[in-house]
Amino acid sequence: MAAKNGHSVEDDAVEWFVLLRDASATDEDRERFLAWRDADPAHARAWGEIERLWSNLDHVSPQSLVLRGSGREDVSLLMPSHKPPPHVIGRGALSFGSKVSAAALVLCALLIWAWMPHSFADYRSGIGERRTVLLDDHSEIELGSATAIDVAFSPTHREVRLLEGEAFFTVAKDAARPFIVATAQGEIEVRGTAFNVKITDAVAVAVAEHSVSVTSAGGNTASVQQGKIVRFDRKAVSPPSNVDLDAIQAWRRDQLVFIDTPLEAVLADLRRYRVGRIDLLSAVAGQKRITAVFEKNRIDDALDTIAESLDLRVIRATSLFTALVAN
């Protein structure tokens, strides 16, 4: 819904939320907020959605701030669990509009930073980006969305540490120097081959050419042949099983393919392709299984399709906060 200022009502609600969470918010700001909220039922609904979505974010504790000084009813807001840092710029230096715009930009930056925990990796891709890295030995690594790697080569050693995300490796043959992909859960060793590695709660390795050797951090090993996939964590390696290589590599064609996949796992993948929070507020729906093909640059359409097929409702409070709830 559009507001009179050209913003959507949801955008206005987020701006109010950011402003009122700031330590420099005044009674006048609170009066203006109450006037805005009560001016239209749509404003109150948008505000309620912001509060509900934010209350589900795991990095905020529900300490309340009571809006006082208005002579009207109190309004409870969720506040951060830590004291904000002192402000360098004096309060009078910024207009109301400038302050909320700056605060909203800070909020966006923090969300993006949360999506990029390995910002100082040797190579990384942004959200929704694909990037190809050519190594000194002529091996190629195609990075999927929100992926980060570190590279360590020596005369006797080739190692790439996959820090997060998903990547397709095409490894040049070198009998004297094995090529190792290291993760927190274990490592993959090859001589010359092509394979896909994806990090979620575990590590999935799908082999497109030749074979690879997988070793978990706990010392369990497996040999994985072409057309097979294994998953491993620190303790164990699954038995190799057949895999649809076209589906596994669909991200390289800017598609996301899911075959009989639990909704929770689907959403975990979609989150990697979109800035902002996507929450599922239904434990039962999370176990429902999905078979679908989505375009990686149309994640909102994917959420709408999922909601329609599983009798869910999508709540959006700007592009930063999205939730799927049961009808």
TrEMBL record:
Q: Which Pfam families match?
A: DUF4880, FecR
Per the database record, which ranges form the FecR protein domain? Answer: 122-212
Q: In what residue span(s) does the FecR N-terminal domain sit?
A: 11-53
A GO MF term:
sigma factor antagonist activity
Tell me the InterPro entries matching this sequence.
FecR, FecR_N, Ferrdict_sens_TM
Q: Which PANTHER family match?
A: PERIPLASMIC SIGNAL SENSOR AND SIGMA FACTOR ACTIVATOR FECR-RELATED, PROTEIN FECR
Protein name, entry field: FecR family protein
Record lineage:
Bacteria, Pseudomonadati, Pseudomonadota, Alphaproteobacteria, Hyphomicrobiales
